[in-house]
């Protein structure tokens, strides 16, 4: 500490003056100097933090530009609603309650169309209900005669919390402000770069399927070929599938409120996406178990690995291309012409794997204690078979679950085509 | 239809009059009658719906009384804050802006203490920031001379959306109302049957551990003993563990804001609960794979099942009692004295399972095509071994993951004891 202080005091503070020469700054002594140093540290620390914050904000915006768009949209909606303050007729029309329109925008504006519509409906319904309640209480109070009116009004104020004489005016103004706020929100959210919950859910599902397929194929390939070239991020992709349940549910919930957009009609079978998500998760659980086999301490015998490698790789590659095809099918929203072929291919690979497993017993050393004979006979002790066998049987289970996934995707496509037909029929009579 | 109508017309409508006799109601004919029937159906349908709704509400309240308590608390807070309307000095003190206090209560009141505190802090900070910004703009406007003042004020109104002359008064009133609202919320939420996020997270973790232990033990027992007496709900308990990630994260996030309550100090290591949750989920993934083995179509040979049954049951029961003990340890927040013993027991059961697996090769039929010899020799084809072997190796993997769980629980207990000591030290000097 002491030597540091001396060192510090041995340093000259120089400042470069505009003409190129430099002046020696005489260090202020004692308390003033300490305060100066402390303040300087504080300011530079604060500057650092602000810079870090700005950098983080920039990164966030660069990673997900939709967040920036959302900010701009909120700003736009607030700016437009603030105009109500400036236009005298509008401002007077709502009795100076323009602030409620702003409050409405602040409360109901959400990143996606579905969520905003849902909140708007909620707010309008709740306001109307509260308005009816208030009018009802008012009516009861006015009917109950001079003697009871104060009591009824007093009790209702205690319950409802309002203290207004011109009730109908208030109700009218409040409803107008809320209608101004909500309709503005709906316009801005639907016209300026709209982000649809349904579209989001759709692309999340497609993305997750691709990830699932990549990590399934990658894991099995990593195990059998020992290639280190596999991208670790690709291998871990199935974890996204595991953790996207909550977001899928909320998106499906909001998507129901959205009008038809893009290729999605009003009553698009959003619930079916949840079923597909559940099927994908059930595959992902198995991939997690597969991963644990791969990282297990019990290493399998190389000869066994070699024996099963061809068929296992075939199963994994055919199942992963089946999942890829399903992703494509969901993306284009039509039944894939090749999916049946791919499932067949997967099943024949499974058959091959079954046969390979059956013939495994030839390689097996029946004696338990003959571990030192291995190299001589080429036979393998039972324990060294277990990891590969476990892997193979999990792989078989995965392909069973993929067939369930195929089923749920086909159901989605069928339902959506049915809805499309219904909508087309409903729309036709209106056309000339 | 026709006969039904006749029947209906054959029935007399009677009404019981007060004196005990009954009068025949002559059915109204034609349109009036139809309208009457329609209306009656509508009303009874509506009554049914209202009854259903009330029943649902009652059931919800009975299943989770805390929801009812939350409703009562919101009502209480709103009632108290409404009193501001009645007390003339208070009402005038905030310039008739008492509504903002009510708005604050509506906006910040959440079911748990942590969430409410978090929102309160958010609201107060945001209001203060906005206030400073407004005052800053005002100052700039007043400093910029007569010529520029209107422009600055105009621009700032356009950005900030306020149209007030007495800025300082407004800021003062707004901040008072918000302080009234938030402090009231904090008082009500902390004094009336408080629900702490931390406590919730703690009991969720304990509950999930119990569920995990039950379903692990139940699944293995179901497989080996074929007992149908297992409770299906208990077997599916691990699914709760799989789906509680999102709620754990939000609770841990809110728990950080809570002051010390019950046995939890202010800086209780809440993040460690998330690690425990992740460890539990990794066990639950394996139980899911285990379940798929149990429900698999490939049934295992009974003799193999019998051979491995004792050791598998031992492993599952010892691991499930280890998890139970961990749950107890988290519950009491101290290191369990028996956990090391239980882990040792689990490891010795694993050793036994390893030996049983090794000796399995004796029971194996080396020939692939000798399926018809089975009954004669008592040997089993390789394919019928696979399901049990897979189950056993998943069981081994589960016990590896349980050891990780033991580690994270011990870390939690250690960290919490450390924090306790620090708090005790900090508090001691204050005591006489």
Automatic annotation (TrEMBL), chains A, B:
This is Aluminum-activated malate transporter 10. It comes from Gossypium tomentosum. One of its GO terms (cellular component) is membrane. InterPro entries: ALMT. It is found in: Membrane. The keyword Transport applies. Pfam families: ALMT (PF11744). PANTHER family: ALUMINUM-ACTIVATED MALATE TRANSPORTER 10. It is a multi-pass membrane protein. GO terms for biological process: malate transport; monoatomic ion transmembrane transport. The keyword Transmembrane helix applies.
